From TrEMBL:
Keywords: Amino-acid transport, ATP-binding, Nucleotide-binding, Transport
GO molecular function list: ATP binding; ATP hydrolysis activity; branched-chain amino acid transmembrane transporter activity
Protein's name according to its UniProt entry: ABC transporter ATP-binding protein
BP GO terms, sorted: L-amino acid transport
Pfam families on file: ABC_tran
Amino acid sequence: MSLLSLEAVHTYYGDSHILEGVSLEVDRGEVVALVGRNGVGKTTTLRTILQLTPPSEGQVWLRGEDITGADTHEVADAGVGWIPENRRIFSRLTVEENIHVAVPEGRNIDAARERAYETFPDLREHRHRDAGTLSGGQQQMLAIVRGLVGDNDLLLVDEPSEGLAPLIVSAVADALAATATETTVLLVEQNLPLALDLADRFYVLDDGQVVDSGDTNEVDDDDERFRRYLSA
Ligand SMILES: Nc1ncnc2c1ncn2[C@@H]1O[C@H](COP(=O)(O)OP(=O)(O)OP(=O)(O)O)[C@@H](O)[C@H]1O
């Protein structure tokens, strides 16, 4: 049984038909990349899984249980974490406070904090600063560790490398690779080399439909299979 499975999912924003029958599976322990051009529905797929934008047709299954139409907080409580695209952090809280509020009740805050700082030593250095005053790269690190310390079974990660300098991208990639040893990851990423490097399998989305999928070790990033769907 897959950890996550989408079955012929259709999702709309108002009258706009965004996902047109998306089916995909993520098995426990995998990193699965979802790639495709801007606007093809990658973020909407993550929002559909979280039931922030529930599908009008089709089903979302988590550990074999139908979660279609569930409340988003129920999906989160069931162990699905989200690292959204726009680095959602609390800008007026310090780095440390941002980490604290991401740790689920009953979990050891000190251990979580240590883990976060080991992953990104930069954050330890800036732990008493308001998160809003950090650089873009540091804010992304904070967004990622907030996902990390959330103790999730499945982490949905949206465009973690977007707008970051190459050196930071490589630190972010290392952190995600470390995360992936403990957590299943569904990764939306436009940086194809990065996506293929981190992931075991991929799906290509185009105009709201899955148009290709496979093992990442079967392909490289200038493969014709990607050029068709990813070039502008
Ligand atoms: N809240 C919304 N209301 C209406 N349309 C929306 C909304 N959010 C997204 N869309 C539209 O839905 C389509 C899919 O958007 P989505 O964000 O899922 O794409 P994406 O593949 O993640 O691309 P990007 O990398 O640009 O975020 C786009 O045409 C977008 O303009």
